[in-house]
Amino acid sequence: MTKQITLEEALKLVEFEFVAGAWRVRHVKTSVYGSVWCNVIGDIDGSVGSVIGDVMSSVYGNVGGTINGREWQFVENPKDKLKRLIDEGADKDQLLKAFNQLEENSD
Questions:
Q1: What residues contact residue 33 under an 8 Å CB cut-off, 6+ apart?
Q2: Of the candidates 3, 27, 33, 73, which lies 20 to 30 Å from 46 by C-alpha distance?
Q3: Residue 65 in contact with residue 55, Cβ under 8 Å?
Q4: DSSP per position, 70-99
């Protein structure tokens, strides 16, 4: 016989709420080993494997796979890139290149 989770154990992992006459998951307090078949309306503080729906906030980890059939890629605007390079202690050549890119995009 498969061991069943108790309600108390489940509530340590997932928080629910009742909205508009229906129950929904409010917070997942652990990893999801499987797919999310609907939308995520909130932040993801870890890696994303498969969401069959929309993510309507921030992902603070990695995304593995595709978004709408296209490969996911990290895009950084010139201002954020320059700030990141400064914070990381990049060398003068990298900083100058990033600064020039920022100047080119400010027109």
A1: none
A2: 3
A3: no
A4: EE------HHHHHHHHHHHT--HHHHHHHH
**E strand residue ranges, the chain:** 14-19, 22-28, 66-67, 70-71
Structure token digits, residue 23:
């129950």
Residues 6+ apart with CB under 8 A from 90: 98
Mean pLDDT over 18-43 rounds to 84
pLDDT at residue 106 greater than cutoff 80: no
pLDDT per residue as tens digits for the range 35-89:
777 778 888 887 777 777 777 887 777 777 777 777 777 788 888 888 989 999 9
- The encoded tokens of residue 55 equal 């993510």
pTM of structure: 0.50
**Beta-bridge mates of residue 19:** 22
